[in-house]
Design a protein that fits this description.
This protein has 18 helices and 17 strands. By secondary structure, it is α/β, with parallel strands linked by helices. Strands 3, 4, 5, 12, 13, 14, 15, 16 and 17 form a nine-stranded mixed β-sheet that branches. Among the domains are: about 200 residues, Urocanase like domains (Rossmann fold); about 140 residues, Urocanase fold (3-Layer(aba) Sandwich), CATH 3.40.1770.10. Bound molecules: nicotinamide-adenine-dinucleotide. It is an enzyme of class 4 (lyase).
């Protein structure tokens, strides 16, 4: 299969920038520098795909190139199924992905249907073509470890040992975020070639092949309170058990292996190649072995928690798989309930923007502007300074920054203006992660332990998607299974192309207000005081009428 690359520059391949922006984002998800397996159309997160198959990808590209400015393409689980005449302000693409009727929402049914070619797993941003590589999750990870530091260690992680696993496309954000908060990271990764890749791209500082070697290296850094990150080649379950046996208790323990999908998690005793062979030959036995390993992995985390470590589930449904394997009880909390929810209550979430020109200077210019307009917000300024220094661009240059509902609309308008006056070389795609206030229902992650018990209520992401369609987003999608796997989440994505036109300004004004404001209403409705106050305030851009 030919690996297709996103066009760059300011020449159109489509009939308008709204379609062109989506075409570039779609192909960017498969850029070899950011995609996990571009040849299989997998962007990240175990098996998150951008299209059902290669033929569908080629058809989508062709349709986008010929799509009129008043037409809308419908994509059903990565397959283009129809083009409708709508109107110019409507989305150019709407999508639904991996959705199954609730009683049928299991991995077993999903795989059966996938085998028949009827569905595809889009994770979150892969399916909605807004994946931008590790940076997409970096600030969420940075915010999480920042909150961990504030809540448990007086504001930073200096001199603290953090144990985690998985150096995949999302998991790679961990060493950067931990060291940015001053900590010492040991990240266990079963695939040696992945550890080497992360070493070459400076995501980790050192590679180790045994726990003793890793501990020897970290000892000096911990006593000097200096940050360092070690990529340790090994299976997470084996290494976590070794910590328990040695009686060494890290300060923080978490995990980002792809535990949401038993077919992606590598069982103990298997190399990556042996695992691939067994997965192909006997998927049932493979899953059994993966589940047994996860049981040991989770049990070791519980033991470390009992011995005093701060332990949390990092959004991969590890605890649920542990319970499936026979473990009982609460085990340990989820990172969202512990650290991220207060941000959602303020309508603060993972805003991101992508330079469709392909020119890094466009992003650096927006960096200068965001730092100038929000100069009094230390968190925004520190974040942009950190990410500029530590993160080189891969694929289309992009930036992510958690902003609240007022900041998103202001910055969106400014970006559109910069495109209009020619300060940027081409339009900018404004988008976000699905892990946002109104965008997701996920009872083991974003909506775990809601104040009013509304954890499993999935109306909000559906309303969110419909509202974004009415408000004029360029792309809107509704999916299930992102992060935690089939049956455990429903979530929506959106993108608006800021092409400098008045119409784009209107789209941005409406979408960037409605999208986070619905999040504030969702948390206010659930009884969170900060959200209630914001929803009642004069400047709130919607009428909260619940
Ligand atoms: P990925 O598939 O790109 O990478 C997973 C990595 O884990 C691979 O490098 C793999 O070799 C390694 N691995 C597999 N089994 C292992 C084992 N037993 N021990 C050690 N290493 C092992 O996945 P990703 O995109 O990095 O996502 C990781 C998980 O995080 C997924 O479950 C995903 O759904 C979830 N996720 C969480 C968030 C969040 O906000 N916290 C966001 C997106 C995704």
């Amino acid at each position: 299969m030919e690996i297709l690359k996103s066009p760059t520059g300011n020449q159109l391949n489509c009939k308008g920038w709204q379609q062109e922006g989506l075409l570039r984002l779609l192909l960017n998800c498969l850029h070899p520098d950011i995609a996990k397996k571009p040849q299989d159309l997998i962007a990240y997160g175990g098996s998150g795909k951008v299209a059902r198959n290669y033929e569908c990808l080629i058809r989508i590209i062709d349709i986008l190139k010929n799509l009129e400015n008043d037409e809308t393409l419908l994509v059903q689980s990565g397959k283009p199924v129809g083009v409708f005449r709508t109107f110019s302000f409507a989305p150019r693409v709407i999508m639904a992905g991996a959705l199954l009727v609730p009683k049928w929402s299991t991995w077993e049914t999903f795989y059966e249907l996938e085998k028949k070619g009827l569905t595809a797993y889009g994770q979150s941003t892969a399916g909605s073509w807004s994946y931008i590589g590790t940076q997409g999750i970096l600030q969420g990870t940075w915010e999480t470890f920042n909150q961990v530091a504030k809540k448990h260690f007086g504001g930073n992680l200096r001199g603290k040992l953090i144990l985690s696993s998985g150096l995949g496309e999302m998991g790679s954000a961990q060493p950067l975020a931990i060291t940015a908060n001053g900590g010492v990271a040991i990240i266990v990764e079963v695939d040696k070639s992945v550890v080497k890749k992360r070493l070459l791209s400076s995501v980790i500082d050192v590679m180790a092949t045994s726990l003793d070697e890793a501990l020897d290296i970290t000892a000096g850094y911990i006593s000097r309170k200096e940050p360092v990150s070690i990529g340790l080649v090994g299976n997470a379950a084996d290494v976590y058990e070794e910590f328990v046996k040695k009686g060494i208790v890290p300060d923080v323990v978490t995990d980002q292996t792809p535990a949401h999908d038993l077919k992606s998690y590598v069982p103990s005793g298997f190399s990556v190649e042996e695992a691939a062979e067994l997965r192909e030959r006997n998927p049932h036995i493979y899953e059994e072995k993966a589940l047994k390993t996860i049981k040991r992995h989770v049990s070791a985390m519980v033991s470390l928690k009992e011995k005093g470590a701060v332990v949390f589930d990092y959004g991969n449904n590890l605890r649920t798989q542990g319970r499936k394997a026979g473990l009982k009880g609460a085990l340990f909390p989820s990172f969202v309930a512990e650290y991220i929810r207060p941000l959602f209550c303020e309508g603060r979430g993972p805003f991101r923007w992508v330079a469709l020109s392909g020119d890094p200077e466009d992003i650096y210019r927006t960096d200068e502007v965001i730092k100038a307009i929000f100069k009094n917000d230390k968190r925004i300024v520190e974040w942009i300074d950190f990410v500029e220094k530590r993160f080189s661009f891969h694929g289309l240059p992009a930036r992510v920054c958690w902003l609240n509902y007022r900041e998103r609309v202001l910055f969106g308008e400014i970006i559109n203006h910069m495109v209009r006056i020619g300060e940027l070389k081409a339009p900018i795609a404004i988008t976000r992660d699905h892990m946002d206030a109104a965008a997701v229902a996920s009872p083991f992650r974003e909506t775990e332990a809601m104040k009013d018990g509304s954890d499993a209520i999935a109306d909000w992401p559906v309303l969110n998607a419909m509202l974004n369609c009415c408000s004029g987003a360029t792309l809107v999608g509704l999916y299930q299974g992102g992060g935690v796997g089939i049956g455990y989440s429903i979530h929506s994505g959106m993108t608006v192309i800021a092409d400098g036109t008045e119409e784009a300004e209107k789209r941005l004004q409406l979408v960037l207000k409605s999208d986070p404001a619905l999040g504030v209403i969702r948390y206010a409705d659930a009884g969170y005081e900060i959200a209630k106050e914001i929803a009642k305030s004069q400047s709130f851009p919607a009428k909260a009428v619940f």
